Amino acid sequence: MALEQYRHKRDPERTPEPFGSGDSSTAVFSRSGGMFVIQKHAATRLHYDFRLEMEGVLRSWAVPKGPSLDPGEKRLAVHVEDHPIDYGDFEGIIPKGQYGGGTVLLWDRGTWEPEGDMDPVAAYRKGHLKFRLDGEKLHGGWALVRMGGRNQDEGHENWLLIKEKDDAAVPGSADAVVEENPDSVASGRAMAEIAADPERVWQSNHAEKNPSFKDKIAAKAAKKATAKKA
Ligand code: MN
């Protein structure tokens, strides 16, 4: 049910975006976190789609200005529909005229884990989720906080994405993290290169020799578990 909205907005015949298997029971989500991904999306307006794996889907927020390492910069994060886990691998072109038409670049990815004693799903529903990111570009503590007002559209509430004060924070850095690190963590390519080469993007997403991000995360989790036992 969680992906109904996602599927309703898209036509599988017309966009290369993944639709998910429809079965979230095999998802690797645990109460201790999961994968996170940030997709830079050059649509009608450029924005950054921030996604956290939770309850078998990617919970998603559209962040117009992108993340900032400055704890003083509270970035608007508009809550949007859940996306399938497979979406975390997607980089490429959504055809013009389709929902979200434009170019998608995998800007960052890695794992997240909740902070504090509260169950992360309960914290999310309460509208105040604190977590740590272990990505290629983003690290340390972060918070997603829902803004007040109960009359906002269901599923499109305004939240704030805020960097916590810690060693990974850079006060006064404004937009430096997005401006200085614009390219894809998956392919190393710039937005313009992805936009100019739809065929290659499409094929590389489907190459079997290219292990999916989900497999990489599973391998990482297994390694972590083994290390804990030792
Ligand atoms: Mn988007």
Flag low-confidence runs: 25-29, 200-210
The order of strands across the largest sheet is: 1-2-3-4-9-8-7-6
- What percent of residues are in strands? 25-35%
Overall shape: it is: globular
The percent of residues in helical segments reads 10-25%
Q: Largest sheet, if any?
A: 8 strands, antiparallel, barrel
Number of strands: 9
> What is the structural class?
alpha+beta
Account of the protein in words:
With 230 residues, the protein is of the alpha+beta class. Helices cover 21% and strands 31% of the residues. It is built from 6 helices and 9 strands, in the order αββββββαβββαααα. It has an 8-stranded antiparallel β-barrel. It is globular, with a radius of gyration of 17 Å. The N and C termini lie far apart (40 Å). Bound molecules: manganese (II) ion (MN). Manganese (II) ion (MN) binds next to strand 2. The site of manganese (II) ion (MN) has 6 residues, from strand 2.
Write a concise keyword list for the protein shown above.
single chain; 230 residues; alpha+beta; 8-stranded antiparallel barrel; 6 helices; globular; binds manganese (II) ion
Question: Which helices and strands, and how do they pair?
Answer:
Elements: H1 4-8, E1 34-42, E2 46-54, E3 57-63, E4 75-83, E5 92-94, E6 102-114, H2 120-126, E7 128-135, E8 139-146, E9 158-163, H3 176-180, H4 191-196, H5 198-206, H6 213-229
Antiparallel strand pairs: 1-2, 1-6, 2-3, 3-4, 4-9, 5-6, 6-7, 7-8, 8-9
The structure holds manganese (II) ion.
